[in-house]
Amino acid sequence: MSEAEKKPFVTLLVTNDGMGKADEGLRHKLIRTYFQLLEDSNTLPDVICFYTEGVKLVIDDSPVLDILQALEGKGVTLTICSTCLNYYGLAERVAVGVVGGMTDIIEAQWRADKVITI
Question: Helices (H) and strands (E) in the chain — how many of each?
């Protein structure tokens, strides 16, 4: 594959418990649709970083747990902020991804050709 054909390294930042600033039901519906379309399209980010309220999406009762597991199964790295998990008291409830720190998030951002925040 030539340099021109090389897929860009994409890092996705998830900073909310859902997508947007709406009621929880709509936020969760939107993020579920977003992740499902990503998974279906096979146009996948390389890393998805979850921090602040975004960590609520990787726990055992997450409305998108099944899709995140499918994305991880396709090789997407899911990085979760340990400080945020501890802040919300969720460290024992992580059900998908790898718990890391801010250093891991910074590394994913620096490696990226494109960073998308949702």
Answer: 4, 5
How many structural domains does the chain have?
1
Q: Render pLDDT for 42-85 as a digit per residue (tens, 0 to 9).
A: 789 999 999 999 999 999 999 999 999 999 999 999 999 999 99
- What is the rounded CA–CA span in Å between residue 18 and residue 20? 7
Tell which residue, 56, 46, 45, has the closest CA to residue 87. Answer: 56
- Nearest of 49, 45, 40, 38 to residue 16 by alpha carbon: 49
Token digits for 6?
């090389």
15: containing domain: 3-117
What is the pTM (predicted TM-score) of this model?
A: 0.93
